[in-house]
Write a structure and sequence with these properties.
about 40% helix; alpha/beta; binds 1,3-dihydroxyacetonephosphate; globular; TIM Barrel; eight-stranded parallel barrel
């Protein structure tokens, strides 16, 4: 079976309920009908701020075509953890999954691999999909140790997670930190090499079935570079930041992901 392709917009700390609804409407209205009616070639996700999640229910599955993602998820189901939102609470407002381990959370909120592993486990146990983000900073890229770094992040972020839980719900996103919001994209060659390395590691750890999961690229993805990145091999779609805030740019990327051979 072909791996699922994904195009997911990470809206970060942008938009309010009204503007989020407007953007969701523009995206859904602009989706090519064949993506909605035929065998779906790319699943489409959006990750608005927590307080706009429930407002997007009319555009998200099952009512609409979008999959809804939180930008974070607590490491525990519930309890005395001020400010946290657990997987059950996300699912309760119609959320399908959560982005976990984004570099902005690792950097600004000091989330380490151990915490991320607990979040991944909690979210999967709670029935959510998980988009697990990994990626190296510029210094590590320049030192040439980027592949080992990313594999160690991946290995630590999945420590203790039973692969039985993955099913089709674990997606990996490779997002080199130096490419996020900078306009610098990894070359198709570099992205392809990292994605292949990740796939090889997944196969070594979990066998062919465990490795058969989508690996997305993120970092300054735009309509102009999406086709080249899709052609790199082992790239199953994108986690899009800035360009996902413009419906037309996001829709172009969706089309390129769906049409890539
Ligand atoms: O962080 C990202 C997606 O999660 C990428 O952001 P940009 O597309 O703005 O570089």
């Amino acid at each position: 079976m072909a791996r699922v392709r994904w195009t997911i917009g990470n809206w970060k700390q942008n938009l309010f309920r009204g503007t989020a609804e407007l953007l969701a409407t523009e995206i859904v209205d602009g989706l090519p009908p064949e993506l909605l009616e035929g065998p779906v070639r790319t699943k489409i996700g959006v990750a608005p701020t927590m307080v706009a999640l429930d407002a997007l229910a009319p555009w998200s599955r099952p009512a609409g075509p979008l999959y809804l993602f939180g930008q974070n998820c607590a490491a525990q189901e519930e309890g005395a953890f001020t400010g946290e939102v657990g997987p059950g609470q996300l699912a309760d407002v119609g959320v399908h999954g959560a982005i976990i381990g984004h570099s902005e959370r690792r950097t600004h909120f000091h989330e380490d691999d151990a915490l991320i592993a607990r979040k991944v486990l909690c979210a999967l146990q709670g029935g959510l999909r998980v988009v697990l983000c990994v990626g190296e900073g510029l210094e590590i890229r320049e030192s040439g140790n980027h592949e080992n770094f990313v594999i160690s992040q991946l290995s630590a972020s999945l420590a203790g997670v039973d692969p039985e839980l993955f099913q089709d719900r674990l997606v990996i996103a490779y997002e080199p930190v130096w490419a996020i919001g900078t306009g610098k994209t990894a070359s198709a060659r570099d992205a392809g090499a990292m994605h292949r390395r990740i796939r090889t590691w997944l196969t070594e750890q979990y066998g062919a079935t465990g490795a058969d999961r989508s690996i997305l690229y993120g970092g300054s993805v735009k309509p102009g570079n999406a086709a080249g990145l899709m052609a790199a091999g082992d790239v199953d779609g994108f986690l899009v930041g800035g360009a996902s805030l413009e419906a037309e740019a996001f829709l172009q990327i969706v089309r390129l992901v769906a049409e890539a051979s």
